[in-house]
Automatic annotation (TrEMBL):
The keyword Cell division does not apply. SUPFAM superfamilies: Periplasmic binding protein-like I (SSF53822). InterPro entries: Leu-bd, Leu_Ile_Val-bd, Peripla_BP_I. This is Amino acid/amide ABC transporter substrate-binding protein (HAAT family). Keywords: Amino-acid transport, Signal, Transport. It comes from Jezberella montanilacus. GO terms for biological process: amino acid transport. Pfam families: Peripla_BP_6. Residues 1-27 form the signal peptide. Belongs to the leucine-binding protein family. Residues 31-367 form the Leucine-binding protein domain. The keyword Transmembrane does not apply.
């Protein structure tokens, strides 16, 4: 009787064994890639735009199927909010390290990327910033810091050259938001503007939470500048431009990529016509596959691209390209493969110099005719 029971159980046991073996055959390795940027606060729209670019890349890679060294791999995007704050940024950087991500796309702000970069470097994890432009980010001697945009050492001079050569500015006022990004961009602009023979008639500082710029602008108005340069984000650059117009200042306000967004149109109002701004990369309209990307992005997220979603999208693909070349999903192997990157992405060819900067930097200048962002010039640096 006991033997019969044992015999009856044999097919069940065999089936369980086969199911288990099948599960092992089809088992997928889950590999985590981190994204971090400001998802709350005044520039949350920029952080969400960056996150969306990274998410679209992860979803497309998973849908296509990813094989690394003969094993099926599924990517998981682990996203964190740094609120655009350096202290929060280092805390969430450690959180991503603890989550065992193999690479990080972020941070958005230079002032957050710079302190957070030490944490990733100590952990041996590659960090690719899609939008941090302060030169100091890649000048720390870390082997883990990369970016897919040009730097302020290129962006600042491009804005200065446009101001002095095209706008014929002789007297320039400079205002920055006292962040690593805003001040860094303003410093680079100032050096080039002076070299071009311009006189800096005022150098003022505000902060990235300010809303009222009338006192600074009244002081600047008295100096009668031909051009005002502002180093900061759209959340402050838009209102500053609007308030300058309200005070009767008709000078062009030149600004960097942090303020070169569709959002600045809303924040500056009619005064947006006075803005000339730059992006530290190729314009979406000039990317061969830009229009197709925009369609896919808008279909997925029901919103237009702000600025750097194409750059976060490519940053994910660059990490995956390093995985493929390393034939490994290990963070240290991915990091070791990064210097040899030569990837043709949405934003163009991506290859890095010894610091982790792009070998070919492009600066695009824009104006806002009829409250619409339009390409003004493209400068290869």
């Amino acid at each position: 009787m006991k033997l019969n029971k044992f015999v009856k159980l044999l097919p069940v046991a065999a089936a369980i064994a086969l199911m288990s073996a099948g599960a092992n055959v089809n088992a997928q390795e889950v590999v985590k890639i981190g994204h971090v940027g400001p998802l709350t606060g005044a520039i949350a729209h920029l952080g969400k735009d960056n996150e969306n670019g990274a998410r679209l890349a992860v979803e497309e890679i998973n849908a296509a199927g990813l094989m690394i060294d003969g094993k099926k791999v599924t990517l998981e995007l682990v996203t964190e909010d740094d609120a655009g704050d350096p202290k929060t940024g280092t805390a969430v950087a450690q959180k991503l390290v603890d989550a065992k991500v193999v690479g990080v796309v972020g941070h958005l702000n230079s002032g957050v990327s710079i302190p957070a970069s030490k944490i990733y470097n100590d952990a041996g994890i590659v960090e690719i910033s899609p939008s941090s432009t302060n030169p100091q980010y890649t000048l720390q001697g870390f082997k883990s810091t990369y970016r897919v945009v040009a730097t302020d050492a290129q962006q600042g001079p491009a804005l200065a050259t446009y101001s002095t050569k095209t706008l014929k500015a002789k007297n320039i006022a400079i205002i920055d938001d006292a962040t690593a990004y805003g001040k860094g961009l303003a410093d680079e602009f100032e050096k080039k503007a002076k070299a071009d023979g311009a006189t800096i008639v005022a150098r003022e500082a505000t902060n990235d939470k300010a809303t009222d710029f009338k006192a600074i602008l009244t002081k600047v108005k008295g100096k009668k500048p031909d051009v005002i340069m502002y180093g900061g984000m759209d959340a402050t650059g838009g209102p500053l431009t609007k308030q300058a117009s309200e005070l009767g200042i008709q000078a062009k306000v030149v600004q960097g990529d942090g303020a070169c967004t569709d959002k600045v149109i809303e924040l500056a109002g009619d005064a947006v016509k006075n803005i000339v701004c730059s992006e530290a990369g190729m314009a979406l309209a000039n990317m061969p596959k830009g229009a197709d990307f925009a369609k896919r992005y808008e279909a997925r997220f029901k919103a237009p691209i702000q600025v750097y979603a194409p750059f976060t999208y490519d940053a994910v693909y660059v990490i995956v390209d390093a995985m493929k070349r390393a034939k490994s999903t290990k963070a240290d192997a991915i990091l070791a493969a990064m210097p040899a990157t030569n990837y043709d992405g949405l934003i163009g060819n991506i290859a890095f110099d010894s610091k982790g900067d792009m070998k070919q930097g492009v600066i695009t200048l824009y104006q806002f005719g009829n409250k619409k962002k339009e390409v003004l010039d493209v400068m290869k640096m």
